[in-house]
Design goal:
330 residues, mainly alpha, four-stranded mixed sheet, 13 helices, 4 strands, elongated, EC 3.4.24.-, zinc, metal-binding
Length: 330
């Protein structure tokens, strides 16, 4: 496992800095947002696995030539009283760092979920007071406010789409269908789970370029995916008008319920520039979405999409193999 630990460390560094920066500057994700979403998830998972794996394999190196043998040796030391003379101080430090980082990531994931769930419950309680069910559209609540507002509130069977009456007064029937399809696509494709996972990743490792760039990219990609789903129901110019109307709204005035934190992050059109992004670039806000819709690019060829998906699978397979393959590099 000696060389495996170095290979994992090198992979973690590559996935933590140059790869996410290069991907954040690429133009092709707008042509195939699903493929890009899979790649970002693979980068995040492989990066985290490589970081923890590098420390774990380094710490277990004196106890076995692969992860299972090393863990077995550690088990014997901790629970069976086997001698620990083969472990040096640096190995103990590496094992402790791996365990602490793993615990930190799991704890942050659970804490982020708790905070999101608590925010949803509070927001739902507020909606119960300030909104009324739509007479024409199921699973839709309407708030009395002139600002155009549209977002979804996940909750399993209790998931709802929230609209303002100001928005309803501005939209035609087809434009309303575009907005509803867009928001329901977020729910049907479980985008809130992606937002949760990448928000937790960002909260756990805020100094890591991967976490910041990945969260920013995911916010953009889910909007593209929802827009593409809306295009299945309405024509392009109808969706453009609907996006422009929704985007013309200002922050809600006092008394109107604000979307929960996860929805505010998704709806925000003016977040800070991502680290490593070209100077003067902006997130995919309303202007970016309108530009993508008005000047559509052809989707990536199938062979390129499959190449990216295969690369994503390879990114996950490499650290896994380095961890469990017996004596692969020794």
């Amino acid at each position: 496992m000696f060389w495996a630990s170095y290979a994992l460390a090198a992979l973690a560094i590559v996935l933590a800095w140059p790869v996410p920066i290069l991907l954040s500057r690429a133009k092709w994700p707008a042509r195939s947002p699903f493929t890009a979403m899979v790649l970002w998830q693979a980068i995040a998972l492989a990066g985290g696995l490589s970081m923890i794996g590098a420390m774990l394999t380094w710490g277990l190196e004196p106890l076995g030539d692969n992860l299972l043998a090393g863990l077995h040796g550690l088990w014997r030391i901790l629970l069976e009283g086997a001698p620990a003379s083969t472990l040096g101080l640096v190995h103990v430090f590496a094992l402790s760092a791996a365990m602490l980082l793993s615990a930190h990531l799991v704890f942050t994931l659970l804490l982020t979920y708790y905070r999101i769930l608590r925010g949803r419950h509070r927001h739902r309680d507020m909606l119960n007071l300030l909104s009324s069910p739509s007479a024409d559209t199921p699973a839709t609540l309407v708030i009395q406010h002139p600002t155009p507002v549209a977002y979804c509130l996940p909750g399993g069977a209790r998931s709802v789409t929230v609209l303002s009456d100001g928005l309803l007064n501005m939209l035609s029937k087809d434009e309303l269908s575009a907005v509803l399809t867009h928001e329901r696509a977020h729910l049907a494709q479980h985008h809130h789970l992606l937002l949760w996972a990448f928000a937790a990743w960002r909260a756990a490792l805020p100094w890591l370029p991967t976490s910041m760039l990945a969260q920013h990219a995911v916010n953009e990609l889910i909007e593209m995916l929802a827009d593409d789903e809306a295009l299945r129901e309405v024509d392009r110019m109808t969706l453009v008008r609907a996006v422009a109307i929704v985007g013309s709204g200002s922050p809600a005035a006092p008394g109107a319920p604000k979307p929960p934190a996860e929805q505010q992050a998704r709806l925000s059109a003016a977040s800070p520039l991502a680290l490593g992004a070209p100077e003067g670039s902006e997130p995919l806000g309303i202007a970016g979405r309108l530009s993508r819709l008005l000047t559509p690019q052809p989707p990536l060829p199938r062979w390129q999409q499959w190449s990216v998906l295969c690369l994503s699978a390879l990114l996950l397979a490499v650290p896994t193999t380095l961890l469990i393959a017996p004596g692969l590099l020794d």
